Input
Amino acid sequence: MKKTLLSAGLLFGLVFSAHAQQPAGPETMRTHADTVQALHNLFGKHRTGGIIWSGIGAAVAVRVATASASGDGGGNAGGTAVGIGVLGGVPALIGVGKLLRFSSSREAAAIAAYDAGKALPRYVQKRLVTKYFSR
Output
């Protein structure tokens, strides 16, 4: 059994050669306009995510409050407050945080800084990946 596995591994290693990573060529070089467009894509996507998170949080909070008010749960007021805060408040706060961090004014400031030759903010650098360039 060991000989079969070793033989198969050797054959596999000989058939499929390893390739080193290639340096960035002209096809992967990005222009200033490409980066600005990627910044627009990045900020737009995160703003959309903020709207979705905020909407889900608000909808859940309203649902918990209406279910509590109609007497469906038969629970206490403390449980309702915790339900609204945890199930509705946390997603809503995540959404508001996204909306604030990726607002149109911050987008304009990041693009202006990039146009001036300054470094992008760290939170933008972390998130600016290839998928935003390929749209």
Observations:
- The longest helix spans residues 32-69.
